[in-house]
User: What shape does this take?
Amino acid sequence: MSLLVVGLSHRTAPVGVLERAALTGEVPTRLLHDAAASATVAEAALVNTCNRIELYADVDKFHAGVAELSLLLAHHSGVDLEELTSHLYVHYEDRAVHHLFSVACGLDSMVVGEGQILGQLRDALAKAQEEHTAARGLNELFQQALRVGKRAHSETGIDKAGQSLVTFGLEQVAAGAGAIAGKRALVVGAGSMSSLAAATLVRSGVTDLLIANRTPERAERLAEILGGDVARTLDLAKVPEALADVDLVISCTGAAGTVIGADDVAAAVAARAAATPLAFLDLAMPRDVDHAVHELPGALLVDLESLSHAHAATPGAGDVDAVTGIVAEEVTAFGAAQRAARIAPTVVALRAMASGVVATELARLDSRLPGLDERSRAEIGQTVRRVVDKLLHAPTVRVKQLAAEPGGASYAEALRELFDLDPAAVHAVSGTPIGTQQPAGGGAG
Assistant: This one.
């Protein structure tokens, strides 16, 4: 597998660009299918979060792959290619694996060490499997990334300091509008991020929680899970008039436009008697709350743009260093395993050829010595096979070791050339017909 990553994130693009590039509705699915259908791509997966859009692909050509994936990102995001290119990053092969493992460990997150990214990577893999755009290569890669992320959190203290975006956002809200405990809150949306926000609010001690969602049934399920004594639902159309009766609003929907307008917020602020600001935590991309709310007296807006400028409580340098070391170790091991796996079909084909030669020569011996007794025939056959096995043992073991090193693919090529192996036989062992790409689809490998 030749892994290529093309993407943009909060580290390379301002929030305004991320907002315009946000993929919503059916757009991520269309992008995934278009990427997988590209002539240069064998497999594809999409990581699409509020502050990250990344295409992972198994490509046969680096430059053509970069050009095609960049063009697809521009087309589906609606951001001009020339503008988008200045914010894109590209990683290839081992560097691409290193990037994904770092993402899985939370090293590349807005809040370093947060664990929510593991669920998002799991969702990305599940989506690629569901749409049949990921086959064995990306399945193995993402499964290993999830294992690396879990290892980082279990072996270091990075998860103790790593916070979810919700927790970090609520800390910023509390800094400007007072403690969360005792507040009346409204959550707009009932997806994974909104559900996490609602659960966090209940744990933080809100006294009254309203949940509004485009699909009322989802809001009702969430309220039931959280407990009817604190949580209850609200019709989405009534959100503007409910603003005056709450202290905090968290919004994270998949809407393409603004959900809460500045005029509605201004009216709510004017109707409130509370001394503390009416606080908003907008975790949506594109934004749910009108950016103009930042300028309204009596209102506090914390959104992804302000979170990106805030300084999260970062984990100790020792934990970051430890996780960085784990990533480096796992990248090396993964690369070695992948390179070793590439030579396995060649080794199997070589042994199959040797077995064929032995069988042919023993058959010839039978025709020349028809009177040979069974015991002698069996002893001769066993001796010949032992000789062949011993002759092949050292070179095949050594070539597997050498193949695990960078550039090891050349040893497989040398083995095929020296023993004049039929390329079709090698591809037949690997399960991939010669001249074709690996089929997209299948479960986790």
